[in-house]
């Protein structure tokens, strides 16, 4: 009974960790990818005067800050040193800098969640799949983890598509202190990362993670059937 309880606990840990592993991993991959170079070709140009080249260079400098492994307080100078093109004026005002400290703290937390969830998934599946007696249980766990990811990300993708304004506001209210994440259209953060930017990246993250969940579920399903067939044949 104790062994069965342990296996069930590991199964649920894997199922619960899989959406975080795939989702947070996708977010980290997109941050590391030069996404603005792709997105700026799709959305409206900056109405306040950034050229496409200036906009891309400033966005890449901002993302470079988010990718640093050091705490926000140690690398925020990277943003403080950015200047509006052709001037000696700071690119970001004090409110924007404060918000970007919060954003990096969140990005760093996402990285650790991805690491921890990945460790749970990998170690949990190894425990279940390496021993031959528990292998069918392990493959079914993988299938259920993929299915759980599909359900969760399907709901998120649907919310983004049919209720984006509500989703966008609630997402920010949940993760950032009230009143710290709203800016004027003329502020640099909005000029570099307008709402359409976030809508598109939200769709990309949710659909990519959903597709990965489908792939994981299919692998688990196919291997579950094969393991059952092998057991019957034996």
UniProtKB/TrEMBL annotation:
Q: Where are the transmembrane segments?
A: 12-33, 112-130, 142-167, 197-222
What is the protein name for this chain?
Answer: Integral membrane protein TIGR01906
Ligase is among the record's keywords: no
Q: Does the keyword Magnesium apply?
A: no
What superkingdom does the record give?
Bacteria
Pfam families xref list = Lit
Native source species? Candidatus Promineifilum breve
| Record keywords | Membrane, Transmembrane, Transmembrane helix
């Amino acid at each position: 009974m104790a062994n069965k309880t342990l296996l069930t606990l590991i199964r649920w840990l894997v199922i619960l960790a899989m959406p975080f592993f795939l989702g947070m991993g996708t977010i980290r991959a997109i941050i590391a990818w030069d996404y603005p170079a792709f997105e700026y070709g799709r959305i409206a140009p900056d109405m306040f005067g950034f050229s496409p080249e200036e906009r891309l260079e400033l966005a890449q400098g901002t993302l470079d800050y988010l990718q640093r492994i050091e705490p926000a307080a140690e690398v925020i100078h990277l943003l403080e040193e950015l200047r509006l093109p052709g001037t000696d004026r700071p690119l970001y005002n004090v409110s924007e800098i404060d918000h970007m400290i919060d954003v990096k703290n969140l990005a760093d937390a996402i990285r650790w969640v991805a690491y921890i969830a990945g460790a749970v998934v990998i170690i949990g599946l190894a425990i279940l799949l390496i021993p031959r007696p528990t292998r069918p249980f392990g493959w079914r766990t993988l299938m259920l983890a993929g299915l759980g990811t599909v359900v969760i990300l399907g709901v998120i993708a649907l919310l983004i598509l049919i209720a984006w304004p509500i989703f966008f506001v609630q997402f920010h209210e949940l993760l950032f202190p009230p009143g710290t994440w709203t800016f004027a259209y003329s502020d640099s953060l909005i000029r570099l990362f307008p709402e359409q930017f976030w809508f598109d990246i939200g769709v990309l993250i949710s659909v990519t993670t959903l597709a990965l969940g489908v792939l994981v579920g299919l692998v688990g399903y196919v291997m579950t059937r094969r393991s059952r067939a092998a057991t019957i044949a034996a």
